[in-house]
Structures are given as structure tokens and as C-alpha cells.
Design brief:
9 helices, Rna Polymerase Sigma Factor, Chain: A, Arc Repressor Mutant, subunit A
């Protein structure tokens, strides 16, 4: 069982029942299939959108509660992953606003996530360290990226969605998607180079 599914399996059924789920219906069966297939995807996207490790279970759970309430609205014009990503994006934005209100910072997410990044046990210690540092730099760059640009960057570069599909999901012109993607790539390259240079400087 995946980390996402394992963390949420006990709480999922009562919550959906409270929301009016009908476990025997065809719609509920399809929603269960969506959950089984995409729980890990939602978990990863929320991480990359800045949700702290300690809060991932609750926010992931909220994503599927929203998906349950809006399942009849899903018309298949975009992929399930794009539809779920749109929900993730809105909930992550709300989460970040609440975090700022509590005077939390996105760096806290990196501290939590750093503990969850692990290289395979068979790797040599120096390989594990290099891989962990590279992963942490990627997370640091993403954490510093504007959320609207980060969303387009993740949907295009990580999930492989087309610019047209992203535009439809986010409700923006496709030209806006191209502009955000270009800006996100430029930011990512510049920040990655800056962090790598800083890392090399610290090692000398």
C-alpha cells in the first residue's frame, strides 16, 4: 500500500459517508477507482505545491472530499490528473494563505520534506548524500517559485500535460500558460544554478 493510501484509508470511508456517499452506486465505484489510481499523484503534487509533511494527510483527504462533491461536474474534457491537480492547486493556495496567517514559511515544508527524501539503501553513502542534496535543491527552487508558475511548471514538466489542457483546467488563455511556463523555466534554471554555486562555495 502506498504512503498516501496507507495514511488515509481508515479515515476515507467515514468522511465520504458523511458527505453523502453511496458505496454501492456506480458513481461511488468510479470515485473509488479514481482514489486508488491517483492518491499518490495527489500526495506528490501537494508536497510540490508547498504543503508540509505533517499536514499532507489532511489536505490530501480534503482533495478527495472536494472531488467527491464535484464528481458529477467532471465531464472528461481534461484528464483526471489535470482535474485533480486543479483541486490540489486551489487547496494548496488556501493552505499557503493560512500558513502565512500563522507566520509559517515555505521553508518549513522543505525541512519536513528533507526527512522524507531517501536514496535506495543499496546506494553508496556519497551517492545518497549527493542525491538528497539535489532533491533538496529542487524542492528549494520550487518553494521559491510563484504558485501560479509552479502549477504550470509541474503540470507540464512533471505530469506531461499539454499547454491546452493546462489552460482549460486553470481557466486561463493558452498564451498565459506559455508565458508562465517560460517564466517558470527561466526562474528554475537561474535558481538551480545559484543554489548549486552556493553549495560548491560552502564545500570549499
Amino acid at each position: 500500500m502506498s504512503p498516501a493510501a496507507g495514511a488515509m484509508s481508515q479515515a476515507r470511508d467515514p468522511a465520504l459517508a458523511a458527505a453523502g456517499a453511496e458505496p454501492q452506486s456506480a458513481e461511488a465505484a468510479r470515485l473509488d477507482q479514481v482514489y486508488a489510481q491517483w492518491a499518490d499523484f495527489v500526495w506528490r503534487m501537494l508536497q510540490r505545491l508547498g504543503v508540509r509533511q505533517a499536514d499532507l494527510e489532511d489536505v490530501c483527504h480534503d482533495v478527495f472530499l472536494v472531488a467527491h462533491r464535484r464528481f458529477r461536474e467532471f465531464d472528461g474534457r481534461v484528464g483526471v490528473n489535470a482535474w485533480l491537480f486543479g483541486i490540489c492547486l486551489r487547496l494548496a493556495a488556501n493552505y499557503r494563505r493560512r500558513a502565512r496567517h500563522r507566520h509559517e514559511h515555505s521553508s518549513a515544508a522543505l525541512e519536513d520534506e528533507a526527512g522524507s527524501l531517501r536514496a535506495p539503501a543499496a546506494a553508496e553513502p556519497d551517492q545518497q548524500l549527493a542525491r538528497r542534496q539535489a532533491q533538496e535543491r529542487v524542492q528549494a527552487v520550487l518553494a521559491g517559485m510563484d504558485l501560479t508558475r509552479r502549477a504550470v511548471f509541474l503540470m507540464y514538466e512533471i505530469e506531461g500535460l499539454s499547454c491546452q489542457a493546462i489552460a482549460e483546467q486553470l481557466g486561463v488563455p493558452v498564451g498565459t500558460v506559455y508565458s508562465r511556463l517560460h517564466a517558470a523555466r527561466r526562474f528554475f534554471e537561474q535558481e538551480a544554478q545559484r543554489l548549486l554555486a552556493q553549495h560548491r562555495k560552502d564545500d570549499t
